[in-house]
Design a protein that fits this description.
The protein is an alpha+beta fold. Helix 5 packs antiparallel against helix 6 and helix 5 packs parallel to helix 11. The longest helix has 26 residues. The radius of gyration is 33 Å and the shape is elongated.
Length: 436
Protein backbone atom coordinates (compact mmCIF):
# COMPACT_ATOMS: atom_id res chain seq x y z
CA UNK A 1 0.00 0.00 0.00
CA UNK A 2 1.11 3.56 -0.68
CA UNK A 3 -0.20 6.93 0.58
CA UNK A 4 -2.32 8.89 -1.87
CA UNK A 5 -1.92 12.62 -2.64
CA UNK A 6 -4.91 13.37 -0.39
CA UNK A 7 -3.03 12.10 2.67
CA UNK A 8 0.12 13.95 1.70
CA UNK A 9 -1.92 17.12 1.28
CA UNK A 10 -3.36 16.76 4.79
CA UNK A 11 0.12 16.33 6.24
CA UNK A 12 1.29 19.30 4.18
CA UNK A 13 -1.38 21.42 5.88
CA UNK A 14 -0.72 20.31 9.47
CA UNK A 15 3.03 19.68 9.56
CA UNK A 16 4.04 23.35 8.94
CA UNK A 17 1.90 24.33 11.95
CA UNK A 18 3.83 21.86 14.07
CA UNK A 19 7.14 23.28 12.84
CA UNK A 20 5.95 26.81 13.49
CA UNK A 21 5.27 25.77 17.09
CA UNK A 22 9.04 25.75 17.68
CA UNK A 23 8.98 29.54 17.59
CA UNK A 24 5.33 30.04 18.53
CA UNK A 25 4.44 27.67 21.45
CA UNK A 26 0.64 28.18 21.16
CA UNK A 27 0.73 26.58 17.73
CA UNK A 28 2.69 23.56 18.91
CA UNK A 29 -0.30 21.76 20.43
CA UNK A 30 -2.50 22.71 17.47
CA UNK A 31 0.01 21.27 15.01
CA UNK A 32 0.51 18.13 17.07
CA UNK A 33 -3.25 17.64 17.38
CA UNK A 34 -3.72 18.10 13.63
CA UNK A 35 -1.05 15.53 12.79
CA UNK A 36 -2.55 13.06 15.23
CA UNK A 37 -5.93 13.47 13.54
CA UNK A 38 -4.41 12.77 10.13
CA UNK A 39 -2.57 9.72 11.46
CA UNK A 40 -5.73 8.49 13.15
CA UNK A 41 -7.72 8.95 9.95
CA UNK A 42 -5.09 7.04 8.00
CA UNK A 43 -5.20 4.15 10.49
CA UNK A 44 -8.98 4.17 10.53
CA UNK A 45 -8.99 4.09 6.72
CA UNK A 46 -6.79 1.01 6.81
CA UNK A 47 -9.12 -0.64 9.32
CA UNK A 48 -12.42 -0.03 7.50
CA UNK A 49 -11.19 -0.64 3.92
CA UNK A 50 -11.79 -4.03 2.34
CA UNK A 51 -8.63 -6.03 1.67
CA UNK A 52 -7.73 -7.07 -1.88
CA UNK A 53 -7.61 -10.61 -0.51
CA UNK A 54 -11.44 -10.52 -0.58
CA UNK A 55 -11.32 -10.45 -4.39
CA UNK A 56 -11.08 -13.77 -6.26
CA UNK A 57 -9.77 -13.70 -9.84
CA UNK A 58 -10.14 -15.97 -12.86
CA UNK A 59 -9.10 -15.62 -16.49
CA UNK A 60 -10.90 -17.25 -19.39
CA UNK A 61 -9.04 -17.40 -22.70
CA UNK A 62 -8.86 -19.97 -25.48
CA UNK A 63 -5.86 -22.27 -25.41
CA UNK A 64 -5.36 -21.50 -29.12
CA UNK A 65 -5.06 -17.91 -30.40
CA UNK A 66 -4.64 -16.56 -33.94
CA UNK A 67 -1.75 -14.24 -34.77
CA UNK A 68 -2.92 -10.85 -36.04
CA UNK A 69 -6.48 -11.53 -34.87
CA UNK A 70 -8.38 -9.95 -31.96
CA UNK A 71 -8.93 -12.79 -29.49
CA UNK A 72 -11.38 -12.32 -26.58
CA UNK A 73 -10.14 -12.58 -22.99
CA UNK A 74 -12.52 -12.62 -20.00
CA UNK A 75 -11.48 -11.50 -16.51
CA UNK A 76 -13.80 -12.71 -13.75
CA UNK A 77 -13.75 -10.91 -10.37
CA UNK A 78 -15.69 -12.30 -7.38
CA UNK A 79 -16.11 -10.04 -4.34
CA UNK A 80 -16.39 -12.07 -1.11
CA UNK A 81 -16.32 -8.94 1.08
CA UNK A 82 -19.18 -6.98 2.67
CA UNK A 83 -18.74 -3.70 0.77
CA UNK A 84 -18.67 -2.69 -2.88
CA UNK A 85 -15.19 -2.46 -4.42
CA UNK A 86 -13.90 -0.44 -7.39
CA UNK A 87 -10.72 -2.10 -8.67
CA UNK A 88 -8.29 -1.59 -11.57
CA UNK A 89 -6.95 -4.73 -13.24
CA UNK A 90 -3.89 -5.02 -15.48
CA UNK A 91 -3.37 -8.35 -17.22
CA UNK A 92 0.18 -9.26 -18.29
CA UNK A 93 -0.42 -10.46 -21.85
CA UNK A 94 1.97 -12.44 -24.09
CA UNK A 95 4.50 -10.31 -25.92
CA UNK A 96 4.81 -9.11 -28.60
CA UNK A 97 1.15 -8.19 -28.81
CA UNK A 98 -1.40 -5.47 -28.13
CA UNK A 99 -4.49 -5.41 -25.93
CA UNK A 100 -7.58 -3.23 -25.89
CA UNK A 101 -8.97 -1.79 -22.65
CA UNK A 102 -6.08 -2.98 -20.52
CA UNK A 103 -6.06 -1.99 -17.63
CA UNK A 104 -9.75 -2.49 -16.85
CA UNK A 105 -11.75 -0.70 -14.17
CA UNK A 106 -14.77 -2.41 -12.65
CA UNK A 107 -17.05 -2.07 -9.65
CA UNK A 108 -18.05 -5.30 -7.93
CA UNK A 109 -20.91 -5.42 -5.45
CA UNK A 110 -20.53 -7.43 -2.23
CA UNK A 111 -20.95 -11.18 -2.64
CA UNK A 112 -21.31 -10.68 -6.40
CA UNK A 113 -19.34 -11.65 -9.51
CA UNK A 114 -18.51 -9.51 -12.52
CA UNK A 115 -17.04 -10.37 -15.91
CA UNK A 116 -15.16 -7.89 -18.09
CA UNK A 117 -13.87 -8.65 -21.58
CA UNK A 118 -11.00 -7.21 -23.58
CA UNK A 119 -9.37 -8.33 -26.81
CA UNK A 120 -5.76 -9.35 -27.33
CA UNK A 121 -3.94 -9.36 -30.68
CA UNK A 122 -0.72 -11.43 -30.68
CA UNK A 123 1.98 -10.43 -33.14
CA UNK A 124 4.06 -13.59 -33.18
CA UNK A 125 3.31 -17.30 -33.50
CA UNK A 126 4.50 -19.93 -31.04
CA UNK A 127 4.04 -21.02 -27.44
CA UNK A 128 3.47 -18.22 -24.96
CA UNK A 129 1.53 -17.45 -21.79
CA UNK A 130 -0.51 -14.89 -19.90
CA UNK A 131 1.28 -14.20 -16.63
CA UNK A 132 0.14 -12.40 -13.48
CA UNK A 133 -2.71 -9.91 -12.96
CA UNK A 134 -2.05 -6.67 -11.08
CA UNK A 135 -4.81 -5.21 -8.88
CA UNK A 136 -5.14 -1.67 -7.59
CA UNK A 137 -7.85 0.06 -5.56
CA UNK A 138 -8.36 3.08 -3.33
CA UNK A 139 -9.12 2.85 0.37
CA UNK A 140 -12.54 3.86 1.66
CA UNK A 141 -11.50 7.44 2.57
CA UNK A 142 -9.13 7.72 -0.38
CA UNK A 143 -5.98 8.06 1.75
CA UNK A 144 -4.26 4.84 0.60
CA UNK A 145 -3.71 2.92 -2.64
CA UNK A 146 -3.68 -0.86 -2.27
CA UNK A 147 -1.77 -2.84 -4.91
CA UNK A 148 -1.25 -6.54 -5.37
CA UNK A 149 0.14 -8.86 -8.06
CA UNK A 150 -1.57 -12.22 -8.41
CA UNK A 151 0.27 -15.04 -10.20
CA UNK A 152 -2.21 -16.48 -12.70
CA UNK A 153 -0.30 -18.16 -15.53
CA UNK A 154 -2.26 -19.39 -18.56
CA UNK A 155 -0.34 -21.14 -21.34
CA UNK A 156 -1.51 -20.54 -24.92
CA UNK A 157 -0.52 -21.57 -28.41
CA UNK A 158 -0.54 -18.82 -31.03
CA UNK A 159 -1.28 -20.24 -34.47
CA UNK A 160 -1.07 -18.67 -37.93
CA UNK A 161 -4.02 -16.51 -38.92
CA UNK A 162 -6.85 -18.90 -39.84
CA UNK A 163 -9.48 -16.19 -40.39
CA UNK A 164 -8.90 -16.56 -44.13
CA UNK A 165 -10.31 -20.10 -43.93
CA UNK A 166 -13.55 -18.81 -42.42
CA UNK A 167 -13.71 -15.98 -44.97
CA UNK A 168 -13.25 -18.52 -47.76
CA UNK A 169 -16.07 -20.71 -46.42
CA UNK A 170 -18.38 -17.70 -46.20
CA UNK A 171 -17.49 -16.49 -49.70
CA UNK A 172 -17.82 -20.01 -51.13
CA UNK A 173 -21.37 -20.28 -49.81
CA UNK A 174 -22.16 -17.00 -51.56
CA UNK A 175 -20.26 -17.90 -54.76
CA UNK A 176 -17.97 -14.89 -54.24
CA UNK A 177 -14.54 -16.51 -53.81
CA UNK A 178 -13.22 -14.44 -56.72
CA UNK A 179 -13.29 -11.46 -54.34
CA UNK A 180 -10.45 -13.17 -52.46
CA UNK A 181 -8.47 -13.43 -55.70
CA UNK A 182 -9.21 -17.16 -56.00
CA UNK A 183 -10.46 -18.33 -59.39
CA UNK A 184 -12.35 -21.49 -58.51
CA UNK A 185 -14.15 -21.51 -61.90
CA UNK A 186 -11.00 -22.99 -63.44
CA UNK A 187 -11.96 -26.39 -62.08
CA UNK A 188 -15.40 -26.55 -63.66
CA UNK A 189 -15.56 -29.35 -66.20
CA UNK A 190 -11.81 -29.42 -66.69
CA UNK A 191 -10.98 -32.84 -65.27
CA UNK A 192 -10.46 -36.10 -67.10
CA UNK A 193 -13.17 -38.28 -65.51
CA UNK A 194 -16.48 -38.03 -67.42
CA UNK A 195 -19.48 -37.13 -65.24
CA UNK A 196 -22.46 -36.10 -67.41
CA UNK A 197 -23.79 -34.30 -70.47
CA UNK A 198 -25.31 -30.86 -70.13
CA UNK A 199 -26.36 -27.84 -72.20
CA UNK A 200 -23.57 -25.87 -73.83
CA UNK A 201 -22.42 -22.75 -71.98
CA UNK A 202 -20.79 -19.73 -73.50
CA UNK A 203 -17.46 -20.24 -71.68
CA UNK A 204 -17.16 -23.95 -72.63
CA UNK A 205 -14.19 -24.98 -74.77
CA UNK A 206 -14.75 -26.51 -78.19
CA UNK A 207 -13.18 -29.80 -77.11
CA UNK A 208 -15.96 -30.21 -74.50
CA UNK A 209 -18.73 -30.32 -77.11
CA UNK A 210 -20.22 -33.78 -77.75
CA UNK A 211 -21.03 -33.56 -81.46
CA UNK A 212 -23.02 -36.80 -81.63
CA UNK A 213 -25.30 -35.77 -78.76
CA UNK A 214 -25.58 -32.29 -80.24
CA UNK A 215 -26.65 -33.77 -83.58
CA UNK A 216 -29.37 -35.86 -81.96
CA UNK A 217 -30.78 -32.98 -79.88
CA UNK A 218 -30.28 -30.35 -82.59
CA UNK A 219 -28.54 -28.11 -80.03
CA UNK A 220 -25.06 -27.91 -78.60
CA UNK A 221 -24.33 -30.34 -75.77
CA UNK A 222 -21.16 -30.33 -73.64
CA UNK A 223 -19.44 -33.02 -71.67
CA UNK A 224 -18.74 -32.28 -68.01
CA UNK A 225 -15.85 -33.95 -66.24
CA UNK A 226 -14.86 -34.49 -62.64
CA UNK A 227 -11.54 -33.15 -61.47
CA UNK A 228 -9.13 -35.88 -60.37
CA UNK A 229 -9.17 -36.58 -56.63
CA UNK A 230 -6.98 -38.41 -54.15
CA UNK A 231 -3.81 -36.88 -55.58
CA UNK A 232 -0.81 -36.04 -53.42
CA UNK A 233 -0.13 -32.35 -52.77
CA UNK A 234 3.04 -31.54 -50.85
CA UNK A 235 3.63 -28.02 -49.55
CA UNK A 236 7.31 -27.24 -48.90
CA UNK A 237 8.10 -24.04 -47.01
CA UNK A 238 11.55 -22.44 -46.89
CA UNK A 239 12.49 -21.37 -43.33
CA UNK A 240 15.97 -20.07 -44.23
CA UNK A 241 17.31 -16.60 -43.62
CA UNK A 242 15.86 -15.14 -46.83
CA UNK A 243 12.43 -15.60 -45.21
CA UNK A 244 13.39 -13.12 -42.49
CA UNK A 245 12.42 -10.32 -44.88
CA UNK A 246 9.28 -8.43 -43.88
CA UNK A 247 6.39 -6.73 -45.62
CA UNK A 248 4.11 -4.42 -43.60
CA UNK A 249 5.60 -5.82 -40.41
CA UNK A 250 4.86 -9.47 -41.34
CA UNK A 251 7.77 -11.78 -42.12
CA UNK A 252 7.89 -13.67 -45.39
CA UNK A 253 7.74 -16.92 -43.42
CA UNK A 254 4.46 -15.85 -41.82
CA UNK A 255 3.15 -15.01 -45.28
CA UNK A 256 4.18 -18.46 -46.50
CA UNK A 257 2.62 -20.24 -43.53
CA UNK A 258 -0.66 -18.35 -43.92
CA UNK A 259 -0.70 -19.31 -47.60
CA UNK A 260 0.08 -22.93 -46.68
CA UNK A 261 -2.86 -23.17 -44.30
CA UNK A 262 -5.34 -21.76 -46.81
CA UNK A 263 -3.93 -23.84 -49.67
CA UNK A 264 -4.05 -27.00 -47.55
CA UNK A 265 -7.67 -26.35 -46.61
CA UNK A 266 -8.75 -25.94 -50.23
CA UNK A 267 -6.76 -28.98 -51.40
CA UNK A 268 -8.25 -31.09 -48.61
CA UNK A 269 -11.68 -29.84 -49.67
CA UNK A 270 -10.92 -31.11 -53.19
CA UNK A 271 -10.40 -34.60 -51.68
CA UNK A 272 -6.64 -34.50 -52.27
CA UNK A 273 -4.01 -35.74 -49.81
CA UNK A 274 -1.91 -32.92 -48.37
CA UNK A 275 1.56 -33.24 -46.87
CA UNK A 276 3.77 -30.54 -45.39
CA UNK A 277 7.51 -30.03 -45.04
CA UNK A 278 9.47 -27.09 -43.62
CA UNK A 279 13.22 -26.83 -44.06
CA UNK A 280 16.20 -24.54 -43.55
CA UNK A 281 19.71 -25.99 -43.42
CA UNK A 282 17.92 -29.07 -42.08
CA UNK A 283 14.43 -30.52 -42.21
CA UNK A 284 12.41 -28.70 -39.55
CA UNK A 285 9.00 -30.41 -39.75
CA UNK A 286 7.36 -33.14 -41.80
CA UNK A 287 3.67 -34.04 -41.96
CA UNK A 288 2.76 -37.17 -43.87
CA UNK A 289 -0.14 -36.74 -46.35
CA UNK A 290 -3.50 -36.35 -44.59
CA UNK A 291 -7.08 -36.30 -45.90
CA UNK A 292 -10.30 -34.44 -45.11
CA UNK A 293 -10.89 -30.84 -44.01
CA UNK A 294 -10.54 -31.63 -40.26
CA UNK A 295 -6.97 -32.75 -40.98
CA UNK A 296 -6.04 -29.05 -41.35
CA UNK A 297 -5.57 -29.12 -37.57
CA UNK A 298 -2.72 -31.61 -38.00
CA UNK A 299 -0.85 -29.22 -40.27
CA UNK A 300 -1.57 -26.30 -37.93
CA UNK A 301 -0.22 -28.16 -34.92
CA UNK A 302 3.04 -28.96 -36.71
CA UNK A 303 3.66 -25.49 -38.15
CA UNK A 304 2.42 -22.89 -35.65
CA UNK A 305 5.75 -22.39 -33.84
CA UNK A 306 8.09 -22.40 -36.85
CA UNK A 307 10.53 -19.48 -36.95
CA UNK A 308 12.91 -18.35 -39.73
CA UNK A 309 16.51 -19.46 -39.21
CA UNK A 310 19.65 -17.40 -39.63
CA UNK A 311 21.20 -20.13 -41.79
CA UNK A 312 20.85 -20.37 -45.57
CA UNK A 313 18.33 -22.95 -46.77
CA UNK A 314 19.92 -26.16 -48.07
CA UNK A 315 17.77 -27.00 -51.10
CA UNK A 316 19.79 -30.07 -52.03
CA UNK A 317 19.32 -31.65 -48.60
CA UNK A 318 15.62 -30.72 -48.62
CA UNK A 319 15.02 -32.34 -52.00
CA UNK A 320 16.91 -35.48 -50.99
CA UNK A 321 14.77 -35.81 -47.88
CA UNK A 322 11.62 -35.09 -49.87
CA UNK A 323 12.51 -37.82 -52.34
CA UNK A 324 13.08 -40.34 -49.54
CA UNK A 325 10.00 -39.46 -47.50
CA UNK A 326 7.46 -38.95 -50.31
CA UNK A 327 7.88 -41.61 -52.98
CA UNK A 328 4.43 -41.35 -54.58
CA UNK A 329 4.24 -38.82 -57.42
CA UNK A 330 3.11 -35.50 -55.96
CA UNK A 331 2.55 -31.88 -56.83
CA UNK A 332 5.24 -30.13 -54.78
CA UNK A 333 4.38 -26.47 -54.13
CA UNK A 334 7.54 -24.74 -52.93
CA UNK A 335 7.12 -21.36 -51.21
CA UNK A 336 10.38 -19.45 -51.00
CA UNK A 337 12.14 -16.13 -51.56
CA UNK A 338 15.16 -16.06 -53.85
CA UNK A 339 17.64 -13.24 -53.42
CA UNK A 340 19.43 -13.36 -56.78
CA UNK A 341 20.09 -15.54 -59.83
CA UNK A 342 22.84 -17.50 -58.03
CA UNK A 343 20.36 -18.39 -55.33
CA UNK A 344 17.90 -19.47 -58.02
CA UNK A 345 20.53 -21.51 -59.81
CA UNK A 346 21.21 -23.46 -56.61
CA UNK A 347 17.49 -24.17 -56.27
CA UNK A 348 17.24 -25.24 -59.92
CA UNK A 349 20.15 -27.66 -59.53
CA UNK A 350 18.49 -29.24 -56.48
CA UNK A 351 15.11 -29.62 -58.21
CA UNK A 352 16.56 -31.23 -61.34
CA UNK A 353 17.70 -34.24 -59.32
CA UNK A 354 14.12 -35.38 -58.53
CA UNK A 355 12.17 -33.57 -61.23
CA UNK A 356 11.20 -36.82 -62.96
CA UNK A 357 9.41 -38.18 -59.89
CA UNK A 358 7.37 -35.11 -58.84
CA UNK A 359 5.77 -32.09 -60.48
CA UNK A 360 7.17 -28.86 -59.03
CA UNK A 361 5.42 -25.53 -58.71
CA UNK A 362 7.74 -22.87 -57.28
CA UNK A 363 6.04 -19.74 -55.93
CA UNK A 364 8.60 -16.98 -55.41
CA UNK A 365 8.02 -14.08 -53.07
CA UNK A 366 9.05 -10.82 -54.68
CA UNK A 367 11.41 -8.46 -52.88
CA UNK A 368 9.31 -5.31 -52.55
CA UNK A 369 12.28 -3.05 -51.79
CA UNK A 370 14.18 -4.26 -54.83
CA UNK A 371 11.12 -4.03 -57.09
CA UNK A 372 10.31 -0.50 -55.96
CA UNK A 373 13.92 0.57 -56.45
CA UNK A 374 14.06 -0.87 -59.97
CA UNK A 375 10.94 1.07 -61.00
CA UNK A 376 11.90 4.31 -59.27
CA UNK A 377 12.75 7.44 -61.27
CA UNK A 378 16.24 8.46 -60.06
CA UNK A 379 16.93 12.03 -59.01
CA UNK A 380 20.72 11.75 -58.66
CA UNK A 381 23.70 9.84 -60.06
CA UNK A 382 23.81 7.64 -56.98
CA UNK A 383 20.11 6.77 -57.26
CA UNK A 384 20.54 6.09 -60.98
CA UNK A 385 23.30 3.59 -60.20
CA UNK A 386 21.17 1.93 -57.48
CA UNK A 387 18.12 1.69 -59.74
CA UNK A 388 20.21 0.24 -62.56
CA UNK A 389 21.76 -2.37 -60.27
CA UNK A 390 18.32 -3.39 -58.96
CA UNK A 391 16.91 -3.70 -62.48
CA UNK A 392 19.91 -5.77 -63.58
CA UNK A 393 19.48 -8.12 -60.62
CA UNK A 394 15.77 -8.61 -61.33
CA UNK A 395 16.49 -9.23 -65.02
CA UNK A 396 19.03 -11.94 -64.14
CA UNK A 397 16.47 -13.61 -61.86
CA UNK A 398 13.83 -13.46 -64.61
CA UNK A 399 16.17 -15.08 -67.13
CA UNK A 400 16.93 -17.89 -64.72
CA UNK A 401 13.22 -18.34 -64.05
CA UNK A 402 12.62 -18.81 -67.78
CA UNK A 403 15.35 -21.46 -67.83
CA UNK A 404 13.55 -23.31 -65.04
CA UNK A 405 10.26 -23.18 -66.96
CA UNK A 406 11.98 -24.57 -70.07
CA UNK A 407 13.21 -27.53 -68.01
CA UNK A 408 9.66 -28.43 -66.93
CA UNK A 409 9.47 -26.69 -63.54
CA UNK A 410 6.39 -24.51 -63.06
CA UNK A 411 7.12 -21.09 -61.57
CA UNK A 412 5.08 -18.15 -60.31
CA UNK A 413 6.04 -14.85 -58.68
CA UNK A 414 3.91 -13.03 -56.15
CA UNK A 415 3.82 -9.89 -54.07
CA UNK A 416 3.88 -10.78 -50.36
CA UNK A 417 0.27 -9.75 -49.70
CA UNK A 418 -0.94 -11.75 -52.74
CA UNK A 419 0.94 -14.94 -51.96
CA UNK A 420 -2.10 -16.90 -50.73
CA UNK A 421 -4.25 -16.28 -53.81
CA UNK A 422 -1.27 -16.81 -56.16
CA UNK A 423 -0.38 -20.20 -54.66
CA UNK A 424 -4.01 -21.36 -54.65
CA UNK A 425 -4.56 -20.30 -58.25
CA UNK A 426 -1.39 -22.14 -59.24
CA UNK A 427 -2.68 -25.31 -57.60
CA UNK A 428 -6.09 -24.93 -59.27
CA UNK A 429 -4.42 -24.35 -62.65
CA UNK A 430 -2.49 -27.61 -62.33
CA UNK A 431 -5.69 -29.43 -61.37
CA UNK A 432 -7.65 -27.86 -64.23
CA UNK A 433 -5.03 -28.87 -66.77
CA UNK A 434 -4.64 -32.29 -65.04
CA UNK A 435 -0.88 -31.99 -65.27
CA UNK A 436 -0.26 -34.27 -62.30
Amino acid sequence: MTPRPRMLLLFACTFPILIAGIWMPPLRMLGLFGNLIVIGAALADLFVSESLAKLKLEREVSEVLSVGSRNPVNLIVRNTGKTSVVVDLYDETPQPGSASSNPLTMEVAPMQERIERYTFEPHERGRNSFDSISLRKESTFGLWTFTQQRPLKTKVRILPDIRAVYRYELMARRNRVDELGIKMRRLRGQGSEFERLREYRRDDEMRQIDWKASSRKQELVSREFNVEQNQNILIAVDCGRSMLNESDGVSYLDRALNASIMLSYIALGQADNVGFMAFSNKVERVVRPVRGKPAIQTILQHSFDLQPRRETADYTLAMEQLSQRFRKRSLVILLTHVVDDKHLEELHHALKSIRSRHLFLCVFLQDLGLTNLATKVPTSDVEAFQCSAAAELLTAVEKKTITMKDSGILTMSSLPDKLTSTAINGYLEVKARHLL
